Amino acid sequence: MSEIKEKGLFINPYVIQMDRFADSLRHLSETFLSLEEYHQTFTREELEDMFIKVSERVCLNCEKKEWCLKENRDRTRQMVYEILATAEEYGAEMNIEVKRDLQKKCVMAPRFLRETLEIFGVEKQRMVWNHKIILNRRGCAVQMNAFAEMIQSAARELDAGICMDDHLEKKVKAGMKRIGLKLLSSVFFLTKQGRYEVHLTLKAQRGQCVASKEAAEVLSSCIGRGMLLLKGERPVIGEEYRTIVFMEGAGFHTLQGVAKIGKGCDKISGDTFLMTELPGGKEGIVLSDGMGSGESAFKESAMVVELLEELLGAGFPPETAIRMMNTALVAGREEVRFSTVDMCIFDLYQGTCEILKSGASVTFIRSRGGVEKISSASLPVGVVQELEIEKSVRQLEDGDFVVMVTDGVLDALPVGEQEAMLGALIGGTTICNPEELAHYILEQVLELSGEIPADDMTVLAVGIWKAS
User: Fold this and answer.
1) Torsion of CA 263, 379, 300, 278, to 10 degrees
2) CA-to-CA distance for 392 and 379, rounded, in angstroms?
3) CA 293, 294, 295 angle in degrees (round to 5)?
4) For residues 343 and 376, is the Cβ–Cβ distance under 8 A?
5) Are 269 and 409 in contact (CB under 8 A)?
6) Each residue of 442-453: pLDDT tens digit?
7) Is 312 helix (H, G, I), strand (E, B) or coil?
8) Is the CB of residue 200 less than 8 Å from the CB of residue 183?
9) Least confident of 98-102, 219-223, 441-445
10) Environment class of residue 83 by beta-carbon count within 10 Å: exposed (0-12), middle (13-18) or buried (19+)?
């Protein structure tokens, strides 16, 4: 089967269908991008339309209508253009010269000016809204392209990972029979990194129940690798056929700890965090600092974290998840409200940590070689459509720690020495319990500042160790 795939003789119909979905999304994205572009100034047609509206409102019953709109139409039009140009530069206050000039040329000057400014305000607001719609449309187009690529990539990876092994299937079937299980079907996946994922459809013999862990032990023996039940799988296999998923055991594990305090020692903090298991043997840690403090900041950062939890849990790549959430926040409301995103994705098979930042504070990595600082200069989410995400990957070793903090922690330390002092605190202790380390750091910062917290403060500590 693998040889046939390599030669391209076999094409999975489901992959073809996913390609069609992806092509449709790309086509829709191109359509969005080909629509009306944003222009910062009014076109000649728009100016003419405003001139007609003003003349209809003001000049209809004026005794000088014929003279202004026929014999001297160009002069009157130019007068409207000058008012609009001045309003663009100075606002509704205008300037004295334009007002005097208008009074000399128009017998209904006050009303003419008032109506012109009103129409200008309406059209200017329309231009602002059009700009926002175009930005939102571009953001959606970018996300459609990213989604299309993800669909294609996932379909091909899934198809390439299926491995057919009749000998192994017979071996597994015989092993399951020995512990009282009947195997209906089996699907073996092998990831790019060479890790096994196995889906077995099993049932116990009549009148029996078998622990799922026993099936995992048999499967491990057959494959020659340590296989574990996927989190959430049923612990017991009964008399009805059920599909059970087994994953190859990871080489690393993590422990996390957190310490936090609200502004002014308030119980409600605007900082929100997430610690969750992700598909493919990964763990995600997210720390978000909402704009301001208190309940409103908490609601904002909590919404960001909940959206990311849903997207990451569904299997979206971390960067794509942040961009999709940012598009939803920017497109979904008028006012600007932002939150920082500090994300660490731990690969428990490789022992790596992918760090993604959007407006977030510095992250520290404590290892045997010292303390490394990873900073960010990007904007938070919810501000602009074209979001810049700073990303870096680090290989971690047994006993390394990743420490994440919000701005409130750094701001409590002397200006100009904040990162150096916090790095010294983290590197100057041998505490290896993540919870104790997080509380130690926060307590030391509060002691050094000697003041009530002027902002919400949160410290997250994550330690990684090799699995025994």
Assistant:
1) -110
2) 17
3) 130
4) no
5) no
6) 999 999 988 888
7) helix
8) yes
9) 98-102
10) buried
| Residue (of 298, 279, 277) closest to 288 by Cα position | 298
The SS3 assignment for 424 reads helix
Taking residue 28's Cβ as centre, other Cβ atoms within 10 Å add up to: 15
Number of H helices and number of E strands within the chain?
14, 17
Q: Are 397 and 372 in contact (CB under 8 A)?
A: no
Cα distances (angstroms) measured from residue 413 to each of 380, 410, 420, 461: 22, 6, 10, 19
Q: In this structure, are residues 455 and 407 in contact, taking their beta carbons and an 8 Å threshold?
A: yes
Largest CA distance in the chain: 106
Q: Does position 6 have pLDDT exceeding 50, yes or no?
A: no
Distances (CA, A) of 57 to 99, 108, 111, 118: 19, 11, 9, 11
Smallest CA-to-CA distance from 421 within 433, 434, 405, 432 is with 405
Pair 413, 422: CB distance under 8 Å: yes
CA distances 68 to 63, 79, 80, 84, 108, Å, are: 10, 11, 12, 18, 12
Record the tokens describing residue 383, joined without a space.
């501000």
Helix (H, G, I), strand (E, B), or coil: what is residue 57?
helix
Please indicate whether residue 194 or residue 311 has the higher confidence score (pLDDT). Answer: 311
CA distance 119 to 125: 10
**Count of CA atoms in the C-beta half-sphere (13 A) of 464:** 30
Residues in the chain, total: 468
CA distance linking residue 311 with residue 320, whole number of Å? 9
pLDDT at 3 over 60: no
Scanning 286-414, the segments in alpha helix (DSSP H) are 294-313, 318-331, 407-411
Task: Give the strand pairing for 242-248 and 196-204.
Answer: antiparallel
Strand 210-211 to strand 363-367: parallel, antiparallel, or no bridges (unpaired)? unpaired
Token couple for 107: 């017998």
Residue 251 gets which letter from DSSP? Answer: S
How far is residue 91's CA from residue 84's CA, in Å, rounded to a whole number?
9
**Phi/psi of residue 268, each to 5°?**
-95, 125
Q: Checking phi first, is residue 450 left (phi over 0); if not, alpha (psi -120 to 50) or beta?
A: left
Residue among 405, 396, 366, 401 at smallest CA distance from 255: 401
Residues β-bridged to residue 366 = 371, 401
Distance CA 270, CA 262 (A): 7
Task: Write phi, then psi, for 446 (nearest 5 degrees).
Answer: -65, -40
What is the tens place of the pLDDT at every residue in 345-375? 999 999 999 999 998 899 999 999 999 999 9
CA distance 243 to 234: 10
C-alpha pair distances (Å), 131 with each of 91, 107, 143: 20, 37, 19
Query: Tokens 């002027």 label which residue?
Result: 454
